[in-house]
Each structure stands twice: as C-alpha cells, then as structure tokens.
Automatic annotation (TrEMBL):
This is ROK family transcriptional regulator. Signal peptide: none annotated. Belongs to the ROK (NagC/XylR) family. InterPro entries: ATPase_NBD, ROK, Tscrpt_reg_IclR_N, WH-like_DNA-bd_sf, WH_DNA-bd_sf. PANTHER family: BIFUNCTIONAL UDP-N-ACETYLGLUCOSAMINE 2-EPIMERASE_N-ACETYLMANNOSAMINE KINASE (PTHR18964:SF149), ROK (REPRESSOR, ORF, KINASE) FAMILY (PTHR18964). It comes from the Bacteria.
Amino acid sequence: MSQARESWQSAGSGGADQGTVRRNNLSLLLRSLRDAGPRSRARLAADLGLNKATVSSLVGELMERGLVRDGQAERGAVGRPGTSVELAGSGAYGIGAEINVHHVTTLAVDLAGSAVSERRTSVDTRGLPPEQVVDHLVELLQGTLSDLADRGARPISVTVGVAGLVDLDHGLVSVAPNLGWRDVPLAELLRSRLGHDLLIEVANEANLAAVAEATPGDPERRDILVIHGEVGIGGGIVADGRPYQGRLGFAGEFGHMVVDRGGRRCGCGRSGCWETVVGVSRLIEMATDEDDLLRSPDVALEVKVEELNRRAAAGDERTLQALHEVGRWVGIGAAALTNALNPGVIVLSGYLGEIGEWIQADVQAELDEGVLAPDAGGTRIALSTLGFSAAVRGAAAVAIERVYDDPTLVPRTSAEQLGATS
C-alpha cells in the first residue's frame, strides 16, 4: 500500500521497531489533544494508558517540533495543579486545492484546522489542456506558499481534489469526463513545477467533500454519504468515521449510476447517468430559455445558483418545477444508495446543498417511497453548510492530517529558535 493510501485510511502500527512505536505514540498524543482538548501531562498519561515519563518525553518532542505548547494550569485538579498541554495551531500547515470545471482554488489551514490563506480564480478548465490548468493551479499555490512564508510558517503537504477518477497510489487522474482529462499525471506535474519539498497527493473532489462533512466526534456523522454537485455529480462514503475509497480508490462515482436507460448522453460517453438528470446544467436547461444569461459559460456557477434561488423565492413557476424535478431524481438515486449502504445521513453538498431548501422535501419523499426498510432505514437527508468550499476544505483537512499521521514530518526546532518564538 502506498504512503498516499495509508494517509487516507489512517493505518495503525504495523511494525514493532521502537521508531514506529514512538511515531505512533506521538500521533496518538497529538490526536488526543485535538479531539479531547488540552490536559495536563498526568491526565494525558492516564487517558492514553502510558506512563508519565513516556508522556513527558513525547510532549517534549512535540514541543521541539512546534506542534504543542504549555497552556494554563489545569482547573479542578486535586492537589498541586499541573500545567495543561495544548495544540500549537501554527506549528504546521496543510494546503488543500481543487480543480473543477469553472475554477481552481487553494486553502491553507493550520494544525487546528483554521484557514489562514484562501485563493480562487475562475477559469474554464474544459477549454484548456491539462498543462495550462496546472499552470493556473501552480500560480495559486505559489501565492499560498508566499502567504505562509510571510507568517514564517512551514507547509507540510498539499492535497488536490479533482472532479474525476483518481489513482491514489500514483497521483494520476485516470479519467475526468467533465474536464476532458484522461491519464493525467497531476502529482508529477505539480512536483516538477513547484520545485518545493512538499508531500503531494491527488484525490477525488467529492470524496474530499465527504471528509469535510464527517465531523470528528459526532456519532451521527460516522456513517454518511455525501452527494456533491457542481457541473457533474460525485459522492463520498464515510464508514465508521473513515473515508471509504474502494479497492483501487474509485468508490463514490455516484453520478455515473445509470438511472434513466435510453436517457441523455453523459460526458462519460454513456446514456442515462444520474448526473444527466440532476446536474446543474440540466436544472438550468429546464428552468430557462436559450437566450437566458444563466446559460452563458461566462457566468460563475455561484452566481447562477444564487439567481435560481432568487427566482424560486419570487415564486417563478418554471424554476420551481425544474427544482422539484431535480429533487425527484436526487431522491431516486439516494433511495438506491440507501438500499445498498444504509447510511445514517445523506448530505447534499455543493450546488445541491445551495438549492436544498427547494428540493429537500422531494428527496425525502422519494427516499421514503424507494427504501425497502421501514422509516427509510433510519437514513435522513441533511444539507451541507459549506457551500462550494466543501471539497477544498476536505482537501486541506486531509493535507494537515498527514501531520497527525506522522508528527515527525515536522522538523525539530533548536532551543535557540524555541526561545526566540516563545
């Protein structure tokens, strides 16, 4: 299994050597601080089942790497209170990026997941060869790296989301119908252009959107499906709190389920795929005339969706009918997925989340009708609150997760540097 696949699946310890054990313990401690908050060394030792000397040594190393710091005295402690240990948010940074049909985007986050730099440019990627699209992305990434350099920050990893099938092991975009890409070595192209010592991996954008929606610690978000809509429709599966990638990393291509045999031809070359009846292009076609500005490729997707929502709110009958038809088809597909996977929640993301208030009832009705299990198997429909940023936020989350997987990726800082930055 490649390093990229391991980072997605958070593989546990597989070796017995001391270096591996220590890396695993560093990871365990760092995740514990993220998930359960600051605590004293004594409490960390008790919570993690490690002795106090080991925890003190681990904390010391994480401090040298700039990943944790001393906080306040622990409240409510019996006897002499210990000093709490907390995350140092600025100790490391991850960068997420997204290539979609109408835009490329980058987002940098710190160890706590807070955004520190966000860049976006509108570009019709379908009309450009992959190398030119990569040039646009590299320009954004260089700007993001410059933003981090201004903060004296060290980026560790870049994760790029693409609307297509991705070979995770090789950073290869196998096929992206809506981009017109096939067998594009995206990770290799980025490495050659960036010339920067960064870990680079590539993933499907809808899978990354699912990562963004899977809230750590929320039991209702441990088993979810995300249906992510922009020009195409993709999906992501989170099973027992972990992203499910499938045998070769191609799981989640919901948009190419055939739901309407003999229907419209899809960008993938087949007919009747789900995205041909629920994609934003189909909605706009049903809701507008040929000369409507919403059909112009020069109008940003966000603007188009905002206008559709405005027309619906104004009671435009044609827009409302089109929305109900899309909602019906979303529900038909969601019911099939629920019969197969029985998730706790199906999250409508991207453009589907933005129009969610108009289609949610239609989706739920089809779910109730089409799912064999009583009460739709306990599956409910939820709307994303992340808008069109879900995929890039998920990409940034995966990028910074590399540090939690292996804190030793961040170099130690000398005592002199620690004193200068404290």
